[in-house]
Design brief:
By secondary structure, the chain is an alpha/beta fold. It has 2 domains: about 260 residues, Crotonobetainyl-coa:carnitine coa-transferase, domain 1 (Rossmann fold); about 80 residues, 2-Layer Sandwich (formyl-coa transferase, domain 3). The chain is built from 17 helices and 13 strands. The radius of gyration is 25 Å and the shape is elongated.
Length: about 400
């Protein structure tokens, strides 16, 4: 069954991760994604390891549900083809450094003349305005600059990058949200608009309570390991065979925990009788709970606490992808790339009752759909041959 965005035409000029993540989301929702790649090697991530039968697993993970068209946009004939595609497109997405699209003659003012209703979405490291607009940026740069690394880890002397590329991914999510909002507004006005999303802005936006705490107290938040800054006990605790996560977020949870671990006396203890007091005395409270949880295994505690409290093991990736709940929700799916073979990739986390969307087809080979797309525009076999000889397509 077609996804909610079936019939939406998206021209995708992105590469690497932040941009492709935008179109991954739109493609999962049913949009037709035409991924424009250079005629040489295409998206840089096609060369990222690990490679399976010569095909990048990294590329496969974020470029499903897309058709690949090779175009040399430095040639007039390449721009002509792009302009033809944009005449009836709903969305153009790009994640070049600000200024590059203007150098190519593809800035919003130009594209707007071709198609006034197009949504022109730009996702970059620092945005289209401001003194840093033209600086290069990758995920780890904005994690550092945006303050996220300063509150991650166990010590301010050893800042830690978050283990997944949240600088790229959060920017991709915010851009996709912006596109959907602009499409909704277009239903009323009939006009498109430009969208400007910055990876750095995304990192500032997700700091949530760290910024709230800074302005409320005047103190700069520091890394606190696995515990929560605003509620306790909310941490990892020792088990006989590792660590178990126990997350207490209200008085009901706290009282249930005390009963389940056989320490009901803690409920009325003046040091732990309210959440502010538990946060204040969190180190002592952790020691008490550790002394109890260390006597049983992770699985035993999950069994004992899991029905009443948020509680879990700390899974490896292997355990996470094989978790029965993850599997039951179709979060790991199998695709088959032509001439390459089978890949297991992440499914879509958004579930619909009527228009499910999801993984319709795998990531494309470089230029796999060039002929198909250009023939639909009316190009003949002879014209395609000529374009290839001129280096406009590959």
């Amino acid at each position: 069954m077609a996804g909610c965005l079936a019939g939406l035409k998206v021209v995708d000029l992105t590469r690497m991760l932040a941009g492709p993540y935008i179109t991954l989301l739109l493609g999962d929702l049913g949009a037709d994604i035409i991924k424009i790649e250079n005629t040489d090697k295409g998206d840089d991530t096609r060369l990222f390891t690990p490679l399976v039968n010569g095909f990048s697993a990294y590329f496969a993970s974020v470029n499903r549900n897309k058709r690949s068209l090779t175009l040399n946009l430095k040639k007039d004939a390449g721009k002509k083809i792009l302009f033809e595609l944009l005449k009836d497109a709903d969305v153009l997405v790009e994640n070049f450094r600000p200024g590059v699209m203007k150098k190519l003659g593809l800035e919003y003012s130009v594209i707007k003349e071709i198609n006034p209703s197009i949504i022109y979405a730009s996702c970059s490291g620092f945005g289209q305005t401001g003194p840093w607009r033209e600086k290069p940026a990758y995920d780890t740069v904005v994690q550092g600059l945006g303050g996220v690394m300063s509150i991650t880890g166990t010590s301010k002397d050893s800042p830690v990058r978050v283990g997944t590329s949240i600088g790229d991914i959060s920017a991709g999510m915010y851009t996709a949200i912006g596109i959907l909002a602009a499409l909704y507004e277009r239903n009323t006005s009939g006009e498109g608009q430009a969208i400007d999303v910055s990876m750095l802005d995304g990192q500032i936006a997700i700091l949530e309570n760290a910024i709230a705490r800074y302005y409320a107290t005047g103190k700069t938040p520091e890394p606190i390991g696995n515990k929560h800054p605003s509620t306790a006990p909310f941490d990892t605790f020792k088990a006989k065979d590792g660590h178990v996560i126990i997350a207490v977020a209200n008085e009901r949870n706290w009282q249930a925990l005390c009963k389940l671990i056989g320490r009901e006396d803690l409920i009325s203890d003046s040091k732990f009788c309210s959440n502010p007091m538990r946060v204040k005395n969190s180190i002592e409270l952790k020691e008490i709970i550790d002394s109890i949880t260390s006597k049983k295994t992770i699985d035993e505690w999950v069994q004992i606490l899991g029905e009443k409290l948020p509680c879990s093991p700390i899974n490896t990736i292997e355990r996470a992808v094989n978790n029965e709940q993850v599997i039951s929700r179709d979060m790991i799916v199998e695709t088959n790339v032509p001439t390459v073979g089978t890949f297991k990739i992440v499914g879509t986390p958004i579930k619909f009752s009527k228009n499910p969307g999801g993984v319709r087809f795998p990531a494309p080979l470089h230029g796999q759909h060039t002929t198909e797309i250009l023939e639909a525009l009316g190009y003949s076999e002879d014209q395609l041959k000529e374009l290839k000889e001129q280096g406009v397509i590959s």
